Amino acid sequence: MNSTPPLLNLVNVTVFRGVASEPGTSDADLAPEPRAALDSITLRIEAGEHVCILGPNGCGKSTLIKTLTRECYPVARADSAISILGRERWNIFELRSLLGIVSPDLLGSCTTDATGRDVVLSGFFSSTRIFPHHHPHPQQLALANLALERMGIAHLADRAAARMSSGEAKRTLIARALVHNPQALLFDEPSNALDIAAQMQLRQTMRTLAQSGIALLLVTHHVSEIIPEIERVILLRGGRILGDGPKASMLTSEKMSALFGVPLRVSREGDYFNIAE
Q: Who's near 205: CB < 8 A, 6+ residues apart?
């Protein structure tokens, strides 16, 4: 029996996205209605697991990540519960110090004159750069340099993020995610904006990290991103779980066609799966 608290435990959780105007206001008819981005989800992900959340755009993948990082909150109901690393209540900054996050939102925020070292150091402050009120101490600076070296990008320490290639910026974000030695790494659509060579390099980096023992949660709509170390795949569509199980039983032509709503054929090359029409 595993006594370690799970990374994430959701019981009948619903999360709405979008806010409607108050009735009677002039733009009430134009405001978008709130929608259930996650609809009565029950899901448990153990600490140390390597898991992929797979689904089409708009299926609720990013909302699930934001619920885990406490950027989104579920509807409060008597039959609903959520715990993260065994706790229902968190100081957000404490929680984020235990999670390493690599997301398109962060990548967009890092295209500034902040240097690679500053981006990595910002992981200690849950920001995307070092601001005047931040005062990194020598140990944090040493850990930032170590993280840059670990990712093989020590030469980017003094380069502005705005002058990095998308692959270099992505590796800098991974170093940022690793700088505080998190319990889990969360990758949200990690290969976006990367060319083929950078995608291959990213997959190898993810494999190395998974093999080091850190928990890895991959959120994607690309089957080709699912590295061999990921053994469990959760299929998400319309805010609901369509399937959850071992990778080989989830990544079938029938299930992928149902997940993406078009006829698809799944092929396998070695330890990787691919999709074709």
A: 151, 171, 174
